[in-house]
UniProtKB/TrEMBL annotation, chain A:
InterPro entries in UniProt: Sulf_transp_TsuA/YedE
Annotated family: Belongs to the TsuA/YedE (TC 9.B.102) family.
One Pfam family this sequence matches: Sulf_transp
Name of the molecule in the record: YeeE/YedE thiosulfate transporter family protein
Alphabetical UniProt keywords: Cell inner membrane, Cell membrane, Membrane, Transmembrane, Transmembrane helix, Transport
Location(s) in or outside the cell: Cell inner membrane
Automatic annotation (TrEMBL), chain B:
The protein, known as: YeeE/YedE family protein
Highest taxon above the source species: Bacteria
Stretches that traverse the bilayer: 41-60, 84-105, 117-133
Assigned keywords, A-Z: Membrane, Transmembrane, Transmembrane helix
Pfam families the UniProt entry points to: DUF6691
Length: 141, 169
């Protein structure tokens, strides 16, 4: 669809606004992997309620907007090993690199952080290679 | 109050992901599929979000504290190291495989059924395992094999070592 990029831009502005609220009002970096990871490894012990509130908004608000859409296509994989392997890779990788698309990407690139830019370059490379291997060579996705 | 604005921020993030179509894993994979049917939408999403945050950072740099009084984040680490590069490669591989990264995986949880939950659980396990995997990666780090120079040994420990060598009277 040729209008996708407009909605992409509008959605991107909203994501930026969410990150801006979290930074200016709460004084925190909006990084999804850090917010979740801090709950799992206990490093976010002092900010548990704030983390849960953020994740609550992230999970609960999208379905409230669904009446505005006819249907939401997610195309999530139904293959069990794909979901498990991908989840393990995403969880491990984001915690080792200390950030994901929201932390390193949205919040890092926008302040010209070298770490954010390098991380983004390498997860894009990893993603492109993943598509080459799993889609074009192995044909499993 | 902090929780209210955290919820609002998460809500804006989730709503933005839905509007942008980033809850659709096929669209995300389309962006990464540069040798297939490439979909540039994610560049506009990233551009929009980074554009807003560029101005937010300018504004934030003039403030000592956030609106609710907590200190602004930072100073940030500046070191580009092995963990940053290898961790990002692993993350990217998983991102491409399922078309999900942590934010959209949470945002689309209510549409994804058991598949979405399975991914989130595996992601949580991966996060819990990350310190161990980080340890495995350190086999590449030659500096761990070197003995630290004695200037790095704290004075108390050196004094202790001196005392234990002193002849008993």
């Amino acid at each position: 669809m040729h209008q996708d990029w407009i909605w992409g831009l509008v959605g991107g502005l909203m994501i930026g606004a969410g990150a801006g609220v979290f930074l200016l009002i709460n004084g925190r970096i909006m990084g999804a992997s850090g917010i979740i990871g801090g709950l799992i490894d206990g490093s976010g012990r002092d900010t548990v309620s704030e983390r849960i509130a953020f994740l609550g908004g992230l999970v609960a608000v999208p379905p409230l907007l669904v009446p505005l859409y006819r249907n939401v296509d997610t195309h999530v994989s139904h293959t069990i090993w794909v979901l498990i392997l991908a989840g393990l890779l995403v969880g491990t990788g984001t915690r080792i690199a200390n950030g994901c698309t929201s932390g390193h990407g949205v919040c890092g690139i926008s302040r010209f952080s070298l770490r954010g830019i390098v991380a983004t370059a390498f997860y894009l490379l990893g993603g492109a290679l993943s598509l080459v291997v799993f889609r074009h060579i192995l044909g499993v996705i | 109050m902090r929780n209210f604005f955290a919820f609002l921020s998460g809500g804006l993030f989730g709503a933005g992901l839905l509007v942008a179509g980033m809850v659709d894993s096929a669209k995300v994979q389309g962006w990464l599929d540069i040798f297939g049917n490439w979909d540039p939408t994610l560049a506009f999403v990233m551009g929009g979000a980074v554009g807003v945050m560029f101005f937010v950072w300018i504004f934030a740099s003039k403030r000592e504290k956030s609106v609710l009084g907590s200190p602004m984040p930072g100073p940030f680490p500046r070191l580009v190291d092995r963990n940053l590069v290898l961790g990002s490669l692993l993350f990217g591989a998983g991102w491409g495989l399922a078309g999900l990264c942590p934010g959209p995986a949470m945002g689309s949880l209510s549409f994804n059924g058991w598949e979405g939950w399975l991914f989130i659980i595996a992601m949580g396990v991966g996060m819990a395992l990350a310190p161990r995997v980080k340890g495995w990666l350190s086999v590449f780090d030659r500096s761990t094999l070197e003995v630290p120079p004695c200037e790095n040994i704290p004075e108390e420990e050196r004094a202790l070592a001196r005392d234990s060598r002193a002849p008993a009277r």
